[in-house]
Amino acid sequence: MTQEDGEMDSLVRKRIRALRVAQGWSLEELAARAKVSQSTLSRIENGRRRLALDQLVTLARALDTSLDQLVETAGDDVITSPAIDAAHGLMRWPIKAEPGMSVVRQRMTNPPPDSPSRMRAHPGREWLVVLSGTAVLLLGNRRLRIETNQAAEFPTMLPHAIGAEGGPCEILGIFDRDARRGHQREDKSDDSGGPGA
Questions:
Q1: What sign for the dihedral angle of Cα 28, 29, 30, 33?
Q2: Burial level of 61, CB count in 10 A (0-12/13-18/19+)?
């Protein structure tokens, strides 16, 4: 066994134990769910029994995860720097595990548009949290105030726009692939863009 194999082996064993503990399950409870003996599970967690693929598949199912997630390793590129769009006051981070998704941080100073014609709709879903200040989300016919630490999630096929109320606000948004594409198209054609614009 190479050092890399040994590190992977140790990581998988620690992950099995950590997932079991996170569920609040005893060795006996997980062993019953995985249909293995308690002593076998104990030896797997403690490194006194060889990891077999069939047992890993069974344990992954019992722990409500996948084999891929159970044996996943962190790459060297754990830390990501943002791409900065100074023209729109945005920072964007791609989500590596979900290539179509991205995280956007934006400081907003303008109120939402007063004209319904400036509200946008496009395929996708968006989630955002207000980091500071108060944001106003226009969503269809609704006007919603989102305070610091409150979040909103909505389908972007509803006409929507977002802006600040009573001073600057800062938001962090997560876009799926379709919402990100919709915003990129809007940013190219309209300078009033933003995560919820």
A1: positive
A2: middle
SS3 content of the chain, % helix, strand, coil (to 5): 35, 25, 40
Burial of 191 (0-12, 13-18, 19+ CB in 10 A): exposed
Burial pattern 106-127, b for ≥16 Cβ within 10 A else e, equals bbbeeebbeeeeebbebebbbb
Cα–Cα distance measured from residue 80 to residue 110, given in angstroms and rounded to the nearest whole number: 29
Question: Within a 10 A sphere around the Cβ of 156, how many other Cβ atoms?
Answer: 22
Greater pLDDT, 170 or 157: 170
Tell me which DSSP letter residue 120 carries: B
Rounded Cα distance between 59 and 65, Å, is 9
> In whole angstroms, what is the distance from residue 94 CA to residue 40 CA?
41
Report how far residue 135's alpha carbon sits from residue 129's, in angstroms, rounded to the nearest whole number. Answer: 9
Length of the chain: 197
Retrieve residue 83's tokens: 């791409």
Confidence band, pLDDT 50/70/90 cuts, at residue 5: low
User: What is the C-alpha to C-alpha distance for residues 110 and 2, in angstroms, rounded to an integer?
Assistant: 58
Cβ 164 vs Cβ 109: under 8 Å: yes
Report the distance separating Cα 109 and Cα 131, nearest Å. 14
